Amino acid sequence: xxxxxxxxxxxxxxxxxxxALFNGIGSxxxxxxxxxPGVRTAVKPVLKSMDSSSGSESEPSNKAVVxxxxxxEAATSNMxxxxxxxxxxxxxxxxxxxxxxxxxSRLLNTEHDTASAGFAGALSQWQEKCGxxxxxxxxxxxxxxxxxxxxxxxxxxxxxxxxxxxxxAPASDFYDPSRPDELRQVQRETYRAYKAMVAAAAAxxxxxxxxxxxxxxxxxxxxxxxxxxxxxxxxxxxxxxESPNAGSAGLAVxxxxxxxxxxxxxxxxxxxxxxxxxxAIQVKTHVYQWLVKNxxxxxxxxxxxxxxxWEYVKK
Length: 315
Ligand SMILES: [Zn+2]
Fold this sequence. Notes:
Blueprint: H1 2-29, H2 43-50, H3 62-65, H4 69-84, E1 86-89, E2 92-95, H5 101-108, H6 117-129, H7 140-152, E3 166-168, E4 185-187, H8 188-202, E5 211-213, E6 216-217, E7 226-228, H9 233-242, E8 262-265, H10 276-282, H11 286-294, E9 300-303, E10 306-312
Antiparallel strand pairs: 1-2, 3-4, 5-6, 7-8, 8-10, 9-10
């Protein structure tokens, strides 16, 4: 009898302690003060501090947010998804999003490694802005949202270039300088923008481009040379016949190259090979990463799937 009384007494004490602890946690968790120490790991304060638009100086910086265990878990998921997520583009099964890391980092405006909590934090801010679940995980939903953002920035009007809009660029601008005149045509403003962009790249010593003079690439330099510009319907048809397996992600029936505003530029490796192993080399080159950061200021937008393909979208 007395033994069971002791047990009940112990049990009551345990319950009392548990309730006291629970109440304590509960009242702290419901605190309206985001600066209460010890609650930064709770969901509410983290979400609040992700709202960078508030601009409050007392808010912890984004670097404080990234320490959250929520984003540590997201970072682990991102590390796996970057190489393993299955998705569809151009009617073809795709695996992982690691090939798009430079574009994703630019979109999220972050320099953090994709496997870090900092990246997950930046992603969650972007997700929130897009009305997506701000979980910091680059899942299928977020990936498709990014693809649609990138695709939405491309040339919409793919009308055939008027002959008067096209100029014939010098052979020295081309990856293959033996290309005949009719395959060296570029839309006028696009060519001007291209030359300005190349001059800027040439002036950037971090790229180490081989120059013939100020702003001019040397004949030996391959990077940023034009592989392909304006294509006639006939030429595109010939390319399609020669690569019947290119698929809809490859040689489009309605190609942006018809406008004369799309340029394929050399960014490394096999110039225009969409195999993941090839693109993995291209997206790591300094030149490609420079384009991702700088091409937009010259009016060019990327085609996310082909690191070499850039479209002049300024009117
Ligand atoms: Zn192209």
